[in-house]
Amino acid sequence: MKKYLYVGLFILIGTNVVALSGVALNRSGEQTSQLTLTERELTLPYNSDAQSENSGMSLTINWRIFDENNGRYIPYSYSLKSIKITEKELVDLGFGEFNEKQKFRSESRELYWALEFDGALHDAEIKKVEINYQEAQSAFNNDPNDANKRKKDDLKDSLAREKTTRSRLFFMEVAANYKTIAAKYSGLNNVVIVKGLAKPDYNRDDKTFSLSLDQLLILNIMVPLEHVDVFKGLNSRDWRIISKPRYAVDVKWGGRLEPWIIGAHKLNE
User: Fold this and answer.
1) Per-residue DSSP letters for 236-266?
2) What single DSSP character describes residue 89?
3) For 31-62, what is each residue's pLDDT tens digit?
């Protein structure tokens, strides 16, 4: 019995040593990025009160994809996590050759993603909603029926959400080689390179390929004990409500492209 106990303790200690070594390596190396994000990009868990009490609280990275949609704003496209891509581009990313029967021989792969914070993609999203709202306003002015009013009001709310509530962290590009994508965005202080899992897909109806961006390799960031008080008393926000973010968080990414929190403070309502 003691033998198994010692083995279990040895495994536990070994696992902790490896994890702590990885953290130390990530933070001791060259800093790759630093951003100040808000509640728009770092969301509270549903049980935030319980987590803050036991000091095991974490924040979830909230990122999104810009989709032109032929210039039309689609309210429910916010959760879409897929991009159009060619077969050659998929092969260049390291996926196996496509086979009509077997699809791709490879499943999800770990790739490098470039994410842009509060930049051109967010501006383009706001512009798209503004144009659609102006068109809906004109349609309502010309024909003030119930359907036109609902569309106008919905787009007005969507525009307000884009400006005050929704995430400004947008996916830009995916690559198989870190040095290549890092060099491309070198010098841009609002772009962060992260690791994420992605999986190819094929649409047999229109014979097109896409890449499903499954998830960031590290989606949740632990809140250090010294910053937990900033989030005490705050509940997970109902995103149907349009309101300004309640806190800001300073985040660094290290040599292993893993994030950690170095500061946090409440924002004035």
Assistant:
1) PP-TTS----SEEEEEEE-TTS-EEEEEEEE
2) H
3) 789 999 999 999 998 765 545 455 579 999 99
Distance (Å, whole) CA 1 – CA 110: 40
pLDDT at residue 76 above 60? Answer: no
Q: Is 210 a domain residue?
A: yes
- For residue 1, being part of any structural domain is answered with no
Give the domain extent around 155: 30-266
Domain-embedded: residue 15: no
Candidates 63, 13, 8; CA nearest to 216 is 63
203 strand-pairing partners? 208
What is the rounded CA–CA span in Å between residue 19 and residue 14? 9
**Global confidence as pTM:** 0.84
Angstrom distances, CA of residue 44 to CA of 195, 227, 264:
22, 14, 13
| Whole-angstrom distance, CA of residue 160 vs CA of residue 151 | 14
Q: Which helix (H) or strand (E) holds 21?
A: helix 2-28
Instruction: Please check whether residue 208 lies inside any domain of the structure.
Output: yes
Pairing state between β 98-99 and 103-104: antiparallel
